[in-house]
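Example record for the data management plan.
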Amino acid sequence: MSDEPRPFELEGRVAVVTGGAGGIGRALAAMLAAEGCRLAVVDLDPARAEEAASALPGGARSHIGLGVDVGERAAVEAMVVETERRLGPIDVYCSNAGIATGPGLGDDGMWEAGWRVHAMAHVHAARSVLPGMSERGSGVFVVTASAAGLLMMMQSAAYTATKHASVAIAEWLAVNYGGSGVRFHCLCPQGVLTPMVTGGSPTAESELRASGHLLEPVAVAEAVLEAIRADRFMVLPHPEVQRYEQAKVADRDRWLGGMRRLLQRVTG
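Corresponding structural encoding:
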């Protein structure tokens, strides 16, 4: 049996990118369009979604923009139906939407919002698109998690916990659906130059800068496409994250002590 990755041609495919009007999502949409995909760009704000879709190569003739709350099951189901009605069966689904969840332990509202977007949005998407992909024996399902889902975001308990949920859901899907011909990818970047980072908490940005370099969204999108071609589950645009996770598993007490020292450094 060959160890070569299974080929997956993106030309002519139908792709959905949630959180697609900015940051990593916009870069992913642009790169998939450049590969020949027809895109449904999904964002909470319909005007932003339509603008982002129109800016892609081929514009409104090839792509659509849809305003969707991905934390609502009915809204995701309706979006999938609308996308397939207008573009055809969905071949690639990038469940990419994410939100900042505030500092510290936060309040109940931030925990609920993080759970809806970072966990249930992936579940709603999987329920909606994986039966069709599995029946066709082909497809790509990308979960955007975070290095915080493997390690932590010291500034936010809710972000840390809900991004851990993202990773766990992606792993579960890969085990339970991976034999169907659908390939699964879990994106875990560290710091990325998006408004969530540069326009958010200065302390959170300091934490990310202290942990490693900040990447442009296009570099993250390139890492996703490379993982699709290689049929590799874990997508680590910051390779050092693998070393950090290995250190965490090897000696958790030592790792926790190191994180406490890093926290003291970034908070002054």
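Summary line stored alongside the record: The chain has a mean pLDDT of 93.
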